[in-house]
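To close the section, here is one more complete example, presented without commentary so you can practise reading it yourself. The ligand is heme C.
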Amino acid sequence: MDRKFVISIALLCWPLTVAMSHAAETVITEGQRIASSGAHGAAACISCHGAKGEGNAAAGFPYLAGQGSAYLLKQLNDIADGVRPSPVMQAIAKALTPDERQAVSVYFSALPHPFDAAALAADSDRPVTERGEWLASRGAWDKNIPACNQCHGPAGTGVGTTFPALAGQSKNYLIAQLRAWQTGKRSPLPLGLMPAVAYQLSAEDIEAVSSYYAGLPVSARAAVSGSQK
Ligand code: HEC
Ligand code: HEC
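Output:
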């Protein structure tokens, strides 16, 4: 290709590229501001979800860091609309404007997830013995339960922007979510996927699979601030 032509295309595109990266930066900065200071009277997100969005497993506050931005945004909308009832979060989610929900979702999504990906990969060849890990990696086809990891990724590390990670998430939090679907207290969307799975799980299954995911290794940083499960 003609060198002059390439240069002029580059010069033409340059302001556009700068404008686009500037816009992304503004969204992240806005998200960080909300996370650390709150907005319109809503409490700072980091006071419960941790300085780096790593959560607080003992208190049952989920981690947000590294979860897909579309997933986080859907949860804030669901909580604000009451289709995912949350006495703790509803007023907070409602206080944010749609743009602010978007910005804070993009911000937390861009932070590193708290699970230890290297330790999980090194561990992947271990034979599957206990119930929770079996459900996660194989499912229970006699009960119409697909393997959780088919949608939540290898070792529950999440897939794309809509299938959240479960690895290293608070055990009590995971149990509460599965029960919420069983009792119609969390949005069935997308496609009723999670209610279909949750209805098939016994109380023992819920305990076992939540224990398994909560017990997966988290990075040293998240282990310090997120404390024990
Ligand atoms: C007082 C503590 C507290 C504060 C402050 C707080 N949260 Fe939460 N958040 C929770 C709890 C607890 C849950 C779990 C839902 C429940 O049990 O009600 C949650 C759940 C969430 C979820 C769903 C996570 C998932 O994996 O589905 C998102 C998203 C979220 N919060 C975002 C935020 C944002 C953004 C802010 C700041 C604007 C914030 N939270 C402030 C306690 C808090
Ligand atoms: C067919 C796909 C699919 C399968 C299989 C599946 N999930 Fe999910 N799961 C989803 C989707 C999609 C969401 C996000 C729901 C939403 O956006 O509100 C989700 C969300 C969750 C959440 C909420 C996470 C959070 O941060 O709040 C938990 C807990 C969960 N799944 C557990 C499981 C378990 C345990 C299994 C296996 C027994 C399983 N899932 C199997 C698709 C699936």
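Once you have examined the tokens, check your reading against these statements. The first helix runs from residue 3 to 37. Residues 3-226 form a domain with the Cytochrome Bc1 Complex; Chain D, domain 2 fold (CATH 1.10.760.10).
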